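Table S2 (text version). Query chain:
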Amino acid sequence: MTLTAGVVAVQGDVSEHADAIRRAAAAHDEEVTVHEIRESGIVPGCDLLLLPGGESTTISRLLREEGIDDEIRQHVADGKPLLATCAGLIVSSRDAKDDRVDTLGVLDVSVDRNAFGRQKDSFEAPLSVDGLDEPFPAVFIRAPAIDEVGEDVTVLAEWDGRPVAVRDGPVVGTAFHPELTPDVRIHRLAFFAPEAEQLAR
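Corresponding structure-token output:
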């Protein structure tokens, strides 16, 4: 069976995420077809979905204008895996603490945008992540932090005492950019860990 993955392509590192999904699938002997999503009608056919970083106000506006927002909500409601990274995490949250961001509300967290500083404050850190044997080389760029999690949300990783990776049912959200490293373990954790594979099928 070939899985169908979609990378929301209105902003962000689309090709890097697509490549990471393919490599993560290959590591699990899975076949996957990856589509770049810029318009409505594609998400309903996807088994896996990824919402990259970028600028959260712009992403949320484009998702709404193209009618992709409700399709993402339905994707999650159907129990299918979603990986949301950096600004994707902000847009997926229930509260971005910014009225300009029309959040999807599929991840029961509130987010502090740019919590770790601006572009010049970007950094890489070895991050201990639940489910991974070795630290993950996390790249933080204008990164948000999670400052409140719902009772059903599992914190997968923290940095400086603040959650930076979480799982809420089929949704995994990270404050960092896993696509900017050759390490595809976050994509594997989101899409090809045993619990994620059950959701995708």
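Notes on Table S2: The chain has a mean pLDDT of 92. The CA atoms of residues 12 and 54 lie 5 Å apart.
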